[in-house]
Amino acid sequence: MTPAASDGLAPAIEIRGLTKVFGSGQTAVRALDGVDLEIGRGEMVAIMGPSGSGKSTLLHLLGALETPTSGSIALAGRRFDGLDDRELTLLRREGIGFVFQFFNLLPSLTAEENVLLPALIAGLRDEAIAARARALLDRVGLAGRTTHLPSELSGGEQQRVSIARALLMEPALILADEPTGNLDSKSEAQVLELLAELNRDEGHTIVMVTHDPDAAAVAGRVVFMRDGRIESDGLGRGLLDRLRRIREDLPLP
Amino acid sequence: MRRSRLRSYWGLSFRQLRTRRLRVFLTAAGIVLGVGMICGVLLLAATIQRTFTDLYDSFYGQTDLVVSGSESAGSLPASALRRVEQSEGVEDASASILAVTSLVGEDGRVEEGSGSTLNVSGDDPEATDFTDWTTTEGRGIRGGREIEVEESWAEANEIGVGDTIRLAAPAGIYRLQVVGLLRFSSGLDFGGEGFGSMPLATARTAFDKPGVFDEVEVLVAGDDEGSVDAVGDRLEREFGKGVEIATPAAKGEDVQRQLQAFNVVLYFFAGMALFVGGFLIFNSFNMTVLQRMREIGMQRTLGATRPMVVRSVLLEAVLLGALGAVLGLGLGVLLALGLIALMRAIDFPVGDLELTWIAPVAAVATGLLTAVLGALNPARRAGRIAPIRAVLGSEGLRTRPGPLRALAGVLLIAPGLAGAFLLGAADETTNGVIAAGIAGIIAIFFGIALIAPFLIEPLARVLSWPIRKLAPVEGRIASDSARSNPGRTAATATALMIGLALVVGINSLGSSFLNSIEREFDRSLARDLTVQPRGFAPGQGPQQTIAKSLSQRIQKLPAAAVVAQERLVAVPNLPRVKGGKEGPQGLLFAFDPKVYPQVDTTDLDGDGASREQVYERIDSGQVTVGKGYADEDGIEVGDALVLEGPSDTRRARVAAIVETIFAGGQTVGLSLETMRDVYGVTADSQLALKATSDAARSDLERQVERLIERDYPNLAVLSNDELKSDVEDQLNQSFGFFNALVGVAIFASLFGIINTLSMSVIERTREIGVLRALGATRWQIRRTIADESLVIALIGAVMGIAIGSGLGWALLKGLSFGIPGVTYQPPVGTMIGVAVAAVILGLVAAILPARRAARLDVVEALSYE
């Protein structure tokens, strides 16, 4: 399914010298400044950092939503640079699943239809893919709500629908942008648990940008950014200390 | 209730429409009204065409050829019938005279309106009947004072076989016995006016047409087209110029051609309504695309390509267009029925609604096309939405229009005004001229639409001033809101502007003409009174005439000093220097040159000759030419025009050019004698009277009124003021009809304002929540929305008045080339009306959106994303 899977040995993500500058001249802002990063298959990585640290920009570049000023990104060995709009579109369609802070479900579609949308966009309309959509809804604990409209679902439920949608095309990479940023604590816990399970039990590669230490805590690896560079990149040890520091940086309690 | 599952990406377009019904309704309303107009107008045109085809088919029946005065102007000498009968290849012929008369009621009066009008043909009961009508009750005419009338007219006037009816004829009131009822082959109901047939001899005396025929109907021996053509050629050689030989079909086509200009006007207004519809689609889709930015960005992240996004927006437009078109068809039929009723009300004969297949097909096709064209640019914009918008939404987007846009607008307006000018200036409204004019007017509207966003800022500032004075807080918020998205405010105001500009433009013409006519009346009317048939409208079909005896009887009244006869014949082609049929449509106007100078002081340019000399020359057979026609055709004093009538063809020198805007200056003036000798016309159309003194004026009026009331109830006596208001009424009636058509376009723009306000409320949900949290009452929120609506409507009104005046001025500048003497006069009353209508429209449009805004839940509104 995934075009990038042809290269079995390449890491899920390989970033070299990635730089992104917004604007020009006096008002130019260097959002990313020569970032190198490698993410292995089946990893779950949290990207953290204060506002303006470049974490969102990194995620947007990873999702091929924006193009870098310089440097390269490769998804499962396939480099983004040189691809035109159509090729990037196909890359997103088949290789990347997105989970957004504001869910971004179409209000006029039911939960099942929202999950199915990527397949419909790709022109797939067979019963197998519909069955997979239902199975995914079942997987995220929403078997009984397939025909509900987004307005009839809670925030947590909507986010689980959007996770099911991200999984439908079996992408090589799932990108989550503040997936719990708009949820109450109970829903937040459910969504984080779901993401952790997907990574742990099913081997999905997940990259998540978050402000939330609790969210970062479920990730196996935390990349901490500041001023467009990676400040630290590590596992377990000292994590709680860093999280405490992050809390102090955060503008919100 | 659950719908079936979405099966493809394209199904999303259906779903979007189904779940946003209010928006769909408001957006489609423009298409519904536009398609309704197109369909209604096409049906009306088809009905009018059918009316005349039916009429000619029934009236002429088996007739192969019709011999008449050149394009039905003037009468043939009585010898014409014999000459036709003796011509080779003619199997049979029958001649008749034609006249218009009025039914006199039991109270001795003639009712106003076309219901009492009866078109009569005087036929020889012994001659073969070529018509295709059938006698449904009673019998045909045999002779004496008998008449057979068309059954639906008889029914409407409660007339039955055996009744005696009274008709106001030139020879006085005629009593006739109804011996039968007739029905046209198609069952045609002419809507108001009736038809009747009476014995030729009776008709000759009643209508004062001794020794003439108006038409000779010919039956050709042999059935093939060749023999008809051969006989036609032979008769043409036999009669020469001034007499027309035509097949009934060709005569029908002549009428169609004359109606074409009217049809073009109808199509123009329908096109404008549809244009407004397209504008609403454009505006609505632009707003939706902006509002769905995050959603479309998300689809792009899911792998939708740019072309897919573009196509899905266009698909939505197609669906919307199709829905609007189908609903529009229903409206179209209703509209056609309404227009038919309206036309009958202004005395235009129309039959019952004719349903054709081409009207709905054309209407739906143009509706769909308009919807797609309207959505084209928004769809392109949607395709350009980057996937990153899934995250950012519409944050940081530039909504200010660029300067190139203004330049493009200016570049469109200039040639647009030139097109409108051309439309007015053209000698002849050919299809090319009309297309240029319409394209010009649409270009002006497009240009304004492009420039409008730049005007919003200053206009909103100025126009919201009184509102801000009345309600400082609400007014300020409303004005800021209108200014915050100038593109959207501009598009909405522009949609309203189009309708209002058309109203102002049309009425500019109306007020200018009216003003100029009044000035001419003041300059030229030296008479005290005018006698003319009720509903007299020269140039609009056959008119009633005045009994010859009347002028002699008035002459004998003690208070009468001058009685001047006027005889008017509308001709499709005015006489030219070279002769032939290329002259423009116009009026032949005959008077007695010995008497007429006493009742008329119109300026004459006799190239040095005095007034007296000019009138002497007219008496000796020369003619005058209206300035409009003279300028157009380059006719000068001393040139010789070829007068081609059924009785004679002769050359006549031009004695003077007349400064008149009467009939658009398309006139040729001649003596009563010349009119009789060339055209065979001997009946008076109008009488101009002068009293012995100013003091005797009221005596004269009383005496003439008494005379007319008793013996000539189809006539009216008018003072000069009444004559003016009579012309004014006729003009207002035509412009009222056009205003009714434009009203549909204005109505369509109402939905545009509602749509914009609804979108504005949705967009500002959070802002409204903040206002409420800060203590704004529901009433204050309502005021805010209503004030924004008012600001938009007033901007539309100001632009409409400005553009409409410009448009009217350009049209008039063009027209005044053909009709010298017409000067621009701003329609002040209409302008005030437009401003008032805009305020009302603005307030009405705000009702629903304002209520919705006021009812928003504060907490939900604050957390709205």
Structural notes for this entry:
- The complex is a heterodimer of chains A (253) and B (865).
- Chain A is an alpha/beta fold and 253 residues long.
- In chain A, 36% of the residues lie in helices and 23% in strands.
- In chain A, the strands form two sheets. Chain A has a six-stranded mixed beta sheet with strand order 6-7-8-3-9-10. Chain A has a four-stranded antiparallel beta sheet with strand order 2-1-4-5, covered by helices on one side.
- In chain A, β7, α6 (185-202) and β8 form a beta-alpha-beta unit.
- The longest helix of chain A is centred in the last third of the chain and has 18 residues, at 185-202.
- Chain B is α+β, with helices and mostly antiparallel strands.
- In chain B, a hairpin with a 2-residue loop joins β7 (164-169) and β8.
- The longest helix of chain B has 44 residues, at 248-291.
- The radius of gyration of chain B is 32 Å and the shape is elongated.
- The chains are: A alpha/beta (253), B alpha+beta (865).
Give the helices and strands, then pairings:
The complex is a heterodimer of chains A (253) and B (865).
Chain A: E1 13-22, E2 29-39, E3 44-48, H1 55-62, E4 70-75, E5 78-79, H2 85-95, E6 96-99, H3 111-121, H4 127-139, H5 155-167, E7 173-177, H6 185-202, E8 206-209, H7 213-218, E9 221-226, E10 229-234, H8 239-249
Parallel strand pairs in A: 3-8, 3-9, 6-7, 7-8
Antiparallel strand pairs in A: 1-2, 1-4, 4-5, 9-10
Helix pairs in contact in A: 3-4, 3-5, 4-5, 5-6
Chain B: H1 11-19, H2 21-60, E1 65-69, E2 76-77, H3 79-85, E3 90-104, E4 117-123, E5 134-138, E6 146-150, H4 151-156, E7 164-169, E8 172-183, E9 194-199, H5 200-206, E10 212-213, E11 215-220, H6 225-239, E12 243-246, H7 248-291, H8 293-301, H9 306-345, H10 358-383, H11 389-392, H12 403-425, H13 431-463, H14 465-470, H15 472-484, H16 486-524, E13 529-533, H17 548-555, E14 560-571, E15 586-591, E16 604-605, H18 611-619, E17 623-626, H19 627-633, E18 640-644, E19 649-658, E20 667-671, H20 672-679, E21 686-691, H21 697-711, E22 715-719, H22 720-763, H23 765-773, H24 778-818, H25 828-855, H26 858-862
Parallel strand pairs in B: 4-9, 6-8, 15-20, 17-19
Antiparallel strand pairs in B: 1-11, 1-12, 2-10, 3-4, 3-7, 3-11, 5-8, 6-9, 7-8, 13-21, 13-22, 14-15, 14-21, 16-19, 17-20, 18-19
Helix pairs in contact in B: 1-9, 2-7, 2-9, 2-10, 2-22, 7-8, 7-10, 7-16, 7-22, 9-10, 12-13, 12-24, 13-15, 13-16, 13-24, 15-24, 16-22, 16-24, 16-25, 22-24, 22-25, 24-25
